[in-house]
Design goal:
Elements: H1 2-9, H2 13-33, H3 36-51, H4 57-84
Helix pairs in contact: 3-4
């Protein structure tokens, strides 16, 4: 049955190939969007800017809160992927 199905479904191979490529593109985009490394680097840069006096305490607190919220979003996303078995 498997071979017969493959022969019958052969005309649909390009469509399945495009679907596979789209899945890989989505997966790569998600990995990039939910990578915590750039957010951690931004937190480090922000701390350095505050220590050097380029950012005042109010600006620091606002930006730090934004970055920490983004890290929490990433953590929740990764936790959800791990629980669904997609990690």
């Amino acid at each position: 049955m498997g071979l017969v199905f493959e022969v019958i479904a052969l005309p649909l191979a390009p469509v399945r190939g495009v679907g596979w490529v789209l899945d890989k593109l989505i997966e790569a985009a998600e990995q990039e969007a939910y990578d915590p490394a750039p957010v951690r680097a931004a937190l480090s840069d922000l701390e350095r800017a505050r220590n050097e006096g380029r950012v005042d305490e109010e600006q620091f607190a606002l930006r730090e809160q934004e970055l920490l919220e983004r890290l929490e979003e990433i953590r929740v996303y990764q936790l959800g992927r791990a629980q669904s078995g997609r990690l």
